[in-house]
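Dock iron/sulfur cluster; give full complex structure.
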Amino acid sequence: MALTGLQIYKMLPRTNCKECGQATCLAFAMQLAAGKASLDLCPHVSQEAREALSSASEPPIALVKIGAGEHAVELGNETVLFRHDKRFVHPTAIAVTVSDLLDKEQIARRVEEINGLFFERVGQVEGVNLVAVKQDGDRDRFAAAVRVAREKSALPLMLISEDAGALAGALEIAGDGRPLICGATRANREAVVELARKYDCPLVVRSDNLDDLAGLVDETVKAGHKQLILDTGARSVERVLADQTLVRRLAVNKRFRLFGYPTVAFACSGDAIQDMLDAAVYIGKYAAVVVVDSAERADILPLITWRLNIYTDPQKPIAVEAKVYEVGKPGPDSPVFLTTNFSLTYFCVAGDIEGTRTSAYILPVDTEGTSVLTAWAAGKLAPEKIAEFIEESGIAERVRHRKLIIPGGLAVMSGKLQEATGWEILVGPRESSSINAFLKEHWS
Ligand code: SF4
């Protein structure tokens, strides 16, 4: 059972030295109890207390790793119920199914399709994470499908079967890649847990009710396997949402260790649109793995975008490097646009300039990833700072003119900016979507 803040407090030095970043030892103890701080932040805690407190300072949801190498996936280590409380740590892994009822060529084509489900969004390449091979046929078909998936994809595998014999055959083929075994039930637990231990693979534990699931997790942990992912057995969106929420609350708020593992949810009803809506719900709350049947790019891209939104650290806006960017093939007479290094702002501006078919330079000032008006209001877009950036960027050596196009929202500083930089300031549109019209009128 988890320790309370007061129990933890009694084991701390109680000197209120503030070195952990908290005003008092009691405040630090409360943070530890809530799983929002690490014991390592207190340099004065005794070894004896450290050992006693170690489980209290562990994240309430265990870290689980699937796969090996470049595409390995980490899940868990979550500490909060709501992203704005701190941040979500590991984005939901998206697994796309392949049925072993397909013939060998169809499986190969399907796996290639899954391999291609990667997209560039705001400067980052994001994609699906797991190839989920599903046993719908006999053991030989399953083994053959796993072999093709293994040969054709560098992504980690998920092996969906509750037949311990079929899993044993599949693990002989793919066990060294640390696939996710899915999974153990009350009926097959002993044999499947033994396989997971033998190949050191993460394991989905499934039961149809939460009480039995807790018991099954307890037995599995006592059998020596702790790399677990929980499947509550729910398949309707209402029940999945209720179970996911309850499991996360019990793990984070009550420190109920038997539910302190990442979870999996399935959006595989056969209706692709409904499945994508369900999958979006599960990404929001709180599935660590979502399994979908669709390998259509049009279905997967919205999920990837949604996941990027949910799992972006709210305290660290995504930002591009502050330097000179080229759109097209700009020359000495090309326009120069100023903006901020908030990724969404930068990529909107870059995309809208691309749409004009005019080559140009873009200078995103380092505003710590904040948008134009936020940066201006916070004093991160002062004329002197912009002048310094223009000087350091070397843009003056790349263009013959001295004209700088600034976002319309910064019109108020155009005079001071002209003085600070010595460049003629052209006040651009407030919205980057109007850049085309602006260029036609002001840049020939
Ligand atoms: Fe207390 Fe340790 Fe924090 Fe100092 S660093 S205030 S001793 S918890």
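Observed: The radius of gyration is 27 Å.
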